Every structure is written in structure tokens, then in C-alpha cells.
């Protein structure tokens, strides 16, 4: 290392020590807050998608099981969405006002399906969506930095796991 480079390294080290690593701490805090904010956006968008698809299931489902599961999706995801929105608002974190574009596209495509065709597509989508949701909420419940969001994820996770099990047990199209 050349003498000027060595001096710069020493000065930089002294700066970090003198500031208590404040720059590093600020960056870490921003990352932690960003992860929680990303969770809020993703979870709220996913919840809106489940409500939309659940509503379609009550209207287009062929089996009573699909219609009942659709109603459960509307009820449970509306309640969870309202709770998440209240938490996010108290922390000035934005929530999604609509599903992710890919989910909105699937909902639009499913709106034209009825009966057995709808049931089959709905079951497949619900299983895939709830697998993603379980992963998202599991990550937040173990790695979240905001205590209130972490508690929300932990509390909601068993319901999402139950939804996944219910979706997997929906009757297959005959």
C-alpha cells in the first residue's frame, strides 16, 4: 500500500470509529425499514388479489366447495388487509391499492371462466399464491425488524397455512 493510500485508509477508519459507524448504522436501518416496507407492499397487493379472486369464485365457481372457499378468501383477506393497512398507516408506510399486474391479468383471464374450468384454474392459482404468501409471511415473522409488522405476520401465518391446505384439498375438476 502506498503512503497516501495508507493515510486515507487510516483516516477513513478513524472517521468510522469517531462517528460510531453512524453511516453504516443508517444504511442498515434504511435496509431494515425497506424490507418491512416491501413486505407491506407485497402483502397488501397479494391480499387484494385474493379478495378479487375470491369474489370471482363466489360468482363463477362450479362447485359449492370453490364458492365457499372464495367467500373465505374475501372475508379473511379483507380483515387481514384492513389490519395491515392500519399498521402501515401508523408508520407512514404505503400499501398497495391494487393487485400486482400479473395477478390482475390472471384475474381478468379467470373472469371469463365458469364452472369446472374456473374451479380448476382457481385451485391452481390459490395453491401457488398461498405457497408464496406462506413464504413471504414466514420471512417477515422471522426476519422483520418492525415489531408490530413481525407480530402481524406471525399471527397471520397460521391462517395462510390453513388456506394453503384448504386450496390443496379443493376437489379436482372431473
What key attributes describe this structure?
6 helices, disordered N terminus, signal, mainly alpha, Ferritin, DUF4142
Outline the secondary-structure elements.
Elements: H1 3-18, H2 22-60, H3 64-90, H4 101-110, H5 115-143, H6 147-168
Report the mean per-residue pLDDT as an integer: 86
Name of the CATH architecture: Up-down Bundle
Strand content: under 5%
CATH topological fold name? Ferritin
Shape: elongated
Question: What sequence of helices (H) and strands (E) makes up the elements?
Answer: HHHHHH
Oligomerization state of this entry?
single chain
Number of domains: 1
Low-confidence stretches: 3-30
Number of strands: 0
* Total number of helices: 6
Q: Could you name the CATH class?
A: Mainly Alpha
Q: What's the Cα radius of gyration? A: 22 Å
Main sheet properties? none
Overview of the structural elements:
The protein has six helices and no strands. It is mostly helical and 174 residues long. It has a single domain, classed as Ferritin, core subunit, four-helix bundle (Ferritin), CATH 1.20.1260. It is elongated. The N and C termini lie far apart (73 Å). The model is unreliable at 3-30 (pLDDT under 50).
Amino acid at each position: 500500500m502506498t503512503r497516501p493510500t495508507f493515510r486515507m485508509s487510516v483516516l477513513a477508519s478513524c472517521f468510522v470509529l469517531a462517528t460510531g459507524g453512524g453511516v453504516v448504522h443508517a444504511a442498515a436501518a434504511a435496509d431494515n425499514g425497506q424490507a418491512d416496507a416491501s413486505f407491506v407492499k407485497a402483502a397488501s397487493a397479494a391480499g387484494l388479489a385474493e379478495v378479487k379472486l375470491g369474489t370471482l369464485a363466489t360468482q363463477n365457481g362450479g362447485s359449492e366447495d370453490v364458492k365457499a372457499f372464495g367467500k373465505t378468501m374475501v372475508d379473511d383477506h379483507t380483515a387481514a388487509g384492513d389490519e395491515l393497512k392500519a399498521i402501515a398507516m401508523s408508520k407512514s408506510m404505503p400499501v398497495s391499492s391494487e393487485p400486482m399486474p400479473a395477478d390482475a391479468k390472471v384475474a381478468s383471464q379467470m373472469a371469463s371462466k365458469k364452472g369446472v374450468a374456473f374451479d380448476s384454474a382457481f385451485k391452481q392459482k390459490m395453491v401457488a399464491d398461498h405457497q408464496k404468501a406462506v413464504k413471504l409471511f414466514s420471512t417477515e415473522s422471522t426476519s422483520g425488524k418492525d415489531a408490530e409488522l413481525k407480530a402481524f405476520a406471525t399471527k397471520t401465518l397460521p391462517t395462510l397455512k390453513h388456506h394453503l391446505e384448504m386450496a390443496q384439498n379443493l376437489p379436482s375438476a372431473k
